[in-house]
Amino acid sequence: MEPMTMEEYSAELRKKIQGIKEEVASLHTHDCFKNENCMLADGNVPPDKQGNMHANITLVFRHLEDARMRLGKVMQAYQGGVSILDK
Fold first, then answer.
1. Is 69 among the domain residues?
2. 33 in any annotated domain
3. Residue 48 forms beta bridges with which residues?
C-alpha cells in the first residue's frame, strides 16, 4: 500500500476535524445547561458559568474551523497555490 500524498492526508485530517467540530457543537445542548446557572469569580467574560462555557465551546469550534481551513491551504499550495475561487 502506497503512503498517502500530502493532499490525501490533509483531506483525511479535514474529514476528522469536521467530525470533531460536529461533536463540539453538540456540547451546546448538553444536559448540564439545564441546571441552575451561577456567577463566576471576577475577571471572567462572560461572568456567568453557562455563558462562559458556551463562549469557550464556540471558541473551540472556531479554532477547529481555522485548523480545517489551514489544511485546505496546505492542499492549495500542494496543487500550485491557486485558490479554486480564483479559477
1. yes
2. no
3. 39
By residue range, what is the domain housing residue 77?
A: 6-27+39-86
For the chain, list residues with pLDDT below 70.
85, 87
At 12, list the grid cell.
Answer: 483525511
- What is the per-residue pLDDT across 4-25, written as a single tens digit (0 to 9) for each? 999 999 999 999 999 999 999 9
Residue 34 domain-assigned? no
The DSSP annotation for 6-62 comes to HHHHHHHHHHHHHHHHHHHHHGGG-GGGGSPP-BPPTT-SSSBHHHHHHHHHHHHHH
Give the total number of structural domains in the chain: 1
Q: Are the C-beta atoms of 76 and 11 separated by less than 8 Å?
A: no
